Write a sequence for this structure.
């Protein structure tokens, strides 16, 4: 449901990945494409780009890396949540628990996951935990 | 007044026994012998010439007039740093031999003696006016001496061929029936000699002596206490001579037989040896006083504030306008303690500058009243004291500057080290870590894929293998940047050769007697060479080759990185972070860096580190 005219097929979950690391953006796309019912809508390499992209494609799920130059992951999350309240924003991080800033709890992200656990199963779990109640991606496109 | 009169230079701490003194002493012995000879001859003349009075006593008196000035003159010549007065007194004593010839009964010798006395008179006026330094200090003094010479030349000498007899009695001879003038050429004595010339010259001579006395009094009044100690005896004797003269001449005119004439005559004559003794006495007194003053000064200056030094000197010299000036390294001209320029005293300003230097080129200058010129030993001593103190302050200032430089260098090294660490963390995070994370994620995908499409899965596994290798390569590169394993294992020679191999510019490595050294030294030299090589690659446009040379020689490890690029103007080099870092690294291990270049002639970055004997 959008008024922006995007063309995401009904039933698939549109995912946007936000990370300054090209390596991760590439592998994230591979994972999303390998997950049934999920589709990669685009990638952004920084917070500002992410907000612009989100306005364009209206994603269902946004993956945001905590540590980025410019407006960092937490600030990006806050703005995304404010602009797109129906989207699920998930923080990703390579650091261990000790290195995560306390504000991560309260910025509006649904959850925080470790980068290396990013797999198809993770995507599905995230959507079923934090997506609209009862929503389930179509098993076929 | 030449500049030499206004600026005096002294070497602090010069050894008293300099080699010149050997030849010096020979001269003194010779002069002493001469004086002795003249004295003996004089006494002989007196004793062999019959005449009134106690001959032996007279002989002694005449002898004193030569012996005392010569003796005192020799003392001053030998022991004072300024030999002038000594030499003047010796000369005066020897010259006085001439008048003593007037004791002779022989016409010719007697006449020589009488004329000689006229000739010697200007010399004696010179002695009075130049005491105690032996130098005339003003135009007026010089004029008076010149006037006396002129007087002798115009009104005394020309009468020699004209008179029958010389004026009698006279102060330096004891004859009652004196010989006639042997130089008389004219048939008879012209009347105008007695009527005009003699009275005129007597008046002029008295006037001249009056001026001499006035000049002496003026000097006394303008003197510091120290100067008065020296001058007072001299002035007293000069006064006595002047008074004796101004009473003798009129008295002789009035009553040639007066017995007073004899007494005054002796006073007049003995003022010459008395003058020599007075000069000696004056110098001794002032030396004593100066010694005490210097003692007080030394005690007072033990722990002074900078202003106290000047104040203390002003008090000791009794010159409230005394200034202390310093020479800043390498610059001409003097500055005071606040850094303001202090000019040399101008011509005619009655001030002079005494410079005191030491062997290491430090110098201090005292700008003071030129009346203190005669006390230059004292001024120099005070200056040396001030110099010694200032050397301490200078040293302390240098140490401060060194310490500051050191802590700044350490801070810079710390900052650079921290930056390096941050860079390593970032490189690890952005490079190897990301790859490994991606690898991990893909492994998860592959394991899923294996169930569905094993062939595709196997292919992916191969690809993952390649990615693992890339990650490994990143880590390797990073480790190499942190500390190359080749450097750690094999030392500088191999590590630098590897640098040359990997470099884009053709490089050559020349090694001579290089072994292994402490890691901080090898690391400092290696990273300096690396930085220099990178600079050449980055900035030396058109360079075709770089040579890295390294030798262990004479307790030092020396290296140089030389390129054949366009070079640069040395003055235009603005040290960037890289250059500062190189300097800091080398300074941290006790070495130093030099960068040289000439436009069109390449660039040389060289450095050396002390490492002790080979191995």
């Amino acid at each position: 449901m959008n008024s922006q005219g995007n063309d995401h097929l009904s039933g698939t979950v549109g995912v946007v990945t936000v990370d300054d690391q090209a390596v991760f953006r590439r592998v994230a796309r591979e994972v999303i494409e390998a997950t049934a019912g999920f589709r990669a809508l685009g990638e952004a390499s920084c917070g500002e780009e992410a907000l612009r992209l989100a306005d364009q494609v209206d994603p269902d799920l946004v993956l945001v890396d905590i540590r980025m130059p410019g407006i960092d992951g937490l600030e990006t999350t806050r703005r995304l949540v404010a602009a797109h309240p129906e989207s699920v924003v998930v923080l990703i991080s390579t650091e261990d628990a000790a290195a995560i800033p306390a504000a991560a709890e309260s910025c509006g992200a649904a959850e925080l996951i470790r980068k290396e656990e990013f797999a198809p199963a993770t995507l599905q779990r995230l959507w079923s935990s934090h997506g609209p109640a009862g929503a389930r991606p179509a098993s076929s496109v | 007044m030449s500049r030499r009169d206004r600026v005096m230079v002294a070497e602090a701490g010069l050894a008293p026994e300099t080699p010149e003194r050997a030849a010096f002493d020979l001269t003194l012995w010779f002069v002493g012998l001469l004086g002795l000879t003249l004295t003996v001859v004089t006494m002989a003349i007196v004793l062999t010439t019959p005449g009134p009075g106690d001959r032996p006593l007279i002989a002694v008196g005449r002898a004193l007039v030569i012996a005392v000035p010569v003796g005192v003159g020799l003392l001053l010549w030998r022991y004072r740093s300024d030999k002038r007065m000594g030499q003047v007194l010796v000369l005066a004593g020897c010259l006085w031999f001439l008048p003593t010839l007037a004791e002779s009964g022989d016409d010719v010798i007697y006449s020589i003696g009488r004329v000689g006395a006229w000739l010697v008179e200007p010399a004696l006026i010179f002695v009075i006016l130049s005491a105690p330094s032996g130098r005339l200090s003003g135009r007026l003094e010089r004029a008076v001496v010149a006037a006396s010479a002129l007087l002798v030349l115009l009104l005394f000498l020309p009468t020699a061929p004209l008179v029958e007899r010389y004026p009698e009695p006279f102060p330096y001879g004891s004859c009652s029936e004196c010989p006639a003038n042997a130089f008389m050429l004219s048939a008879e004595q012209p009347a105008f000699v007695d009527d005009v010339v003699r009275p005129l010259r007597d008046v002029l001579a008295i006037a001249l002596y009056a001026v001499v006395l006035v000049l002496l009094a003026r000097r006394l009044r303008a003197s510091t206490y120290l100067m008065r100690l020296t001058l007072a005896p001299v002035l007293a004797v000069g006064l006595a001579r002047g008074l004796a003269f101004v009473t003798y001449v009129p008295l002789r005119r009035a009553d040639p037989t007066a017995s007073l004439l004899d007494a005054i005559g002796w006073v007049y004559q003995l003022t010459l040896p008395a003058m020599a003794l007075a000069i000696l006495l004056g110098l001794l007194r002032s030396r004593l006083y100066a010694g005490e003053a210097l003692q007080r000064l030394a005690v007072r200056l033990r722990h002074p504030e900078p202003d106290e030094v000047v104040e203390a000197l002003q008090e000791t010299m009794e010159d409230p306008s005394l200034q202390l000036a310093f020479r800043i390294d390498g610059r001409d001209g003097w500055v005071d303690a606040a850094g303001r320029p202090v000019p040399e005293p101008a011509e005619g300003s009655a001030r002079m500058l005494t410079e005191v230097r030491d062997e290491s080129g430090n110098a201090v200058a005292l700008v003071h009243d030129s009346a203190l010129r005669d006390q230059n030993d004292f001024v120099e001593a005070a200056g040396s004291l001030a110099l010694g103190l200032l050397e301490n302050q200078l040293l302390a200032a240098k140490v401060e500057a060194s310490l500051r430089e050191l802590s700044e260098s350490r801070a810079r090294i710390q900052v650079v080290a921290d930056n390096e660490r941050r860079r390593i963390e970032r490189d690890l995070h952005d490079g190897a870590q990301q790859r490994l994370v991606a690898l991990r994620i893909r492994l998860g995908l592959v394991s899923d894929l294996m169930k569905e499409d094993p062939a595709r899965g196997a292919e992916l596994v191969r690809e993952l293998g390649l990615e693992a290798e890339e990650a490994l390569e990143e880590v390797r590169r990073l480790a190499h940047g942190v500390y190359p394993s080749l450097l750690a294992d094999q030392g500088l020679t191999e590590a630098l050769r590897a640098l040359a191999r990997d470099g884009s510019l053709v490089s050559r490595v020349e090694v001579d007697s290089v072994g292994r050294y402490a890691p901080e030294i090898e690391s400092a030299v290696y990273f300096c060479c690396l930085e220099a090589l990178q600079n050449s690659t980055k900035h030396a446009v058109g360079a075709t080759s770089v040579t890295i040379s390294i030798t262990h020689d004479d307790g030092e490890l020396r290296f140089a990185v030389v390129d054949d690029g366009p070079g640069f103007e040395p003055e235009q080099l603005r040290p960037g972070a890289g250059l500062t870092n190189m300097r800091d690294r080398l300074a941290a291990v006790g070495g130093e860096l030099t960068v040289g270049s000439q436009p069109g002639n390449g660039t040389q970055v060289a450095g050396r580190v002390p490492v002790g004997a080979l191995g």
